[in-house]
Amino acid sequence: MDKSVKINLAGTLFQIDEEAYHTLRDYLQALNSRFKNVPGGNETIEDIESRISEIFQSQGGTAGVMTKDNVEAMIGIIGKPEDFEAHEQAAGFQSETHWKKRLYRNPDERIISGVCGGIGSYLNIDPVWVRLIFILFTFTAGIGLLLYIALWVALPVAFTDSQKRELYGESFNYAANGSSDPRGNLAANNLGNVINEIFGAIGKFFYVIFRIFAIAFGVMFVLLGFISLLTFFFLLFVRNQGILPVELHGNFFYLPDFLNFVVNPSLTPWICLLFGIVIVLPLLAIIYWGIKMIFWFRSRDGVISLIALVLWFLSLTALVIILAGQGLSFSQTGHATSAIVIENPPDTIYVVTSRKIADLKYNRDLIIPDNAYAMYANTDSLQLSIRANVGYETSGDKTARVEIVKTSLGTGIVDASRKAESLPYNYKFSHDTLYIDEYFTLPRDRKWSGDEIETRLFVPDGTILWFEKPSSNFSLMWRHDDGEIMRWEPASNYQVVTSDGLHSSKSSKYKK
Amino acid sequence: MDLENTKAQMRKGILEYCILSILSGNSCYASDIIKGLKEGKVIVVEGTLYPLLTRLKNAGLLSYRWEESLQGPPRKYYELTAEGVKYLNELDSSWKELVESVSLLRKK
Question: Where are the domains of chain A?
Answer without folding.
Answer: 4-93, 107-188, 222-329, 331-505
